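dude i think i finally got it to work??
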Amino acid sequence: MILLLSALLAISDYSGVWETTYGDMVLEQNGVSVSGWYSYGGMSTIEGTITDSGKLMFTYDEDSASGTGWFLLSETGESFSGQWKADGDQNWSSWEGHRSTGEPSTWVLILEAEWQESMRENEYSFGAMLNAWLGRLPSIDIRHRFVHDIDDVRSFCAEAAVLPGDVYLVIASHGTTSGISLNGGTVSPQELASAISPMTNLKLVHFSCCEIMAGNTDEAILNSRSTWPEDFAVSGYTTSVDWGGSAIIEFYYLNQILENGLTPVEASRALMGDIRFSGNNSTPWMEAAGFQIQTP
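look at this
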């Protein structure tokens, strides 16, 4: 019986990224337990248990609904078929999916706040400049999105979690030691860490924000998971950094990573060596930026 169960579990591998009837879905399997989320209705959760026959029996939760269902893998393990029904409903509906087959790439996701606060201010975007600069690299796919509240951040991070390949996340906004500042209010370190948590493909979180690294946002992110991809890092500033200074720093730093192939830690060492004001040393013309990097 033990050998039979082991053989079934070896075949019944539900972990991975799926394209399904109800949007993209990411599942993580630990033994017979499976948990994850899917993109229908924003970010909905799913969790369940694999039976002896290899069927995944699950419950799901959406913003305005919850229910139960089951999936069963095909013989190849590349697709599944199943059914679901809402709590209190007697009718079952079909739910099917197949493994995502997109070609792996290197992705830069720029999430940017609206900087201007009134009609008197000219419109400007650091993300647009960064997009144009990195757009010259043929091996990089860039996604630049504006965010206004924590729901926007959660939604875009959830979408990015299913991108095939490595994701480098740049968050551009006003910031304080309490978190990032958006039109909808301050996003706390814990809220941000929770929003990022589905992104198992994340290689870097860089904050183009003042003072973030003087708080505990980096600590909240690093402590939100027990394991991170190799060379993962969180970077940003401890000071109210000068606009021009931060632009020079980030163009250099990200270029070292995305064009020259350095890890974030290696790129930060190069940055500290080549741009004197990037760390804790001021120059006659520029205050110290307080660039800092943290790793697990």
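Residues 243-258 form the longest helix (16 residues).
im so relieved honestly
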